[in-house]
Task: structure prediction
Amino acid sequence: MLTNEEKQALIDKAVQAYHKAYAPYSKYSVGAALVADSGKIYDGVNIENAVYPVTICAERVAIFKAVSEGEKSFSTLAVVTKNGGTPCGSCRQVMAEFNPHALVLIANVKGELVGEYRVHELLPSAFGDGDLEEARE
Ligand code: THU
Result:
């Protein structure tokens, strides 16, 4: 459970990341920052490509950076956009893989918190490892 000061510090990290986004096509920058279970913070930005579908979202970059460093879960993830946009469906699915109970802080580029959700609220009835186990039985 993060204090309000810790939540703001995480949002501020996502704001810093936001300014490193590579979004020459949409011009819609996104920054993300998460607290992994080790306590370490990982950030991410959206990285676009001239082949548009190859683009990857900021949230998934942050999560994949964390997982590739050996993390298995995260408690809180902050997402920063110009207008306080919420995470896309693919990112919600990836968040659910690593912690359906994680807190997602939605903020704008001024660092103002505009929404706060659990991953399971953003993606109810998510498909998960349990569904695959049932199929294997
Ligand atoms: N984008 C993200 O980084 N995260 C989201 O959850 C929504 C969309 C990026 C992808 C693309 O670079 C731009 O925002 C416009 O879709």
Observations:
- The CA atoms of residues 42 and 65 lie 7 Å apart.
- The longest strand covers residues 74-81.
- Strands lie at 31-36, 41-45, 74-81, 103-108, 113-118.
